[in-house]
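Pilot study result, target chain (297 residues):
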Amino acid sequence: MPANNLTPVHFFSHGSTMMLGEESTSADYWKKCGDEALAHGIKGVVMMGAHWDADADRVEVAMNPTPNKSPVAYVHPSKYVDYVLQPDLATGERCIQLLRAAGFAAEGNTTFDWIHDTYLVLIRMFPGGCPPTTLISMNARFDPHYHVKIGAALRQLRAEGYLLIGSGGAVHNLYRNVYWPMVRHADNFAQPTPPEPASLDFRQAVEDVFRNNSGPELRRAVTRLMKHPQYREAQGTDDHFMAIMFVAGAAGDEEDRGDFGRLEAETWELTNMCNSQFTIGVWPDQRGQTAAVESAA
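Predicted structure:
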């Protein structure tokens, strides 16, 4: 039986930079999740993205008190330049201690500037203002079990009112994308042809893993996805898949059995990029309602 005092965990596929400026069902869902988080009085957000990794055996935590934002292409600056980031240094220090206690060589990074993989989602979730946020790096060796363990080490923050998010990509191979509609017509959603079979197959495999596994089985299933025959066609590099591992670590404890992932929104862009949005768990006051709906179904 899932625990009743834990916040949900989100895996968001952030997609291309144009997901910041263009309307989509994914953007609508991000806003819905942000509204729910604020309504439930979250203390802050703890987030792993896909564009920042630490070398050797290290993991870093963003500790820059006044980070800049890396500029993005195909988005008008008015969509993001004036948005004020709110790094949560106290929670950052807490994360460093939790990670070290779990055996990680964790360090703070006082110069890191935020990248669109994280602030794109935060702007869409919280357009009225950024909540206190802590960013966790990946490790550049992209070991799936390492990143599951990061999520597991920070899982207890869910019981303290923090929202844990992984921002990556369900299908994210920049080498397979079709860019000419975006370059010529500023249209990232054109889909002049259907997605390639490998993209469709792997997208389905990711959904199957989330829908059919919970608890420790979820952790095992997501790591196995990197052995899927279509994995390299769907993920040109490993960086955008580590956030899934982080999420499975944060929502894959024995206590999480019965909390299956839900595909809540999905947006295809650039022909072969699939931006699937998954949530595991519900807010504590919604748990009884969810159980009643599932029982009726």
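One observation from the pilot: The first strand starts at residue 9 and ends at 13. A full batch analysis is planned for the follow-on phase.
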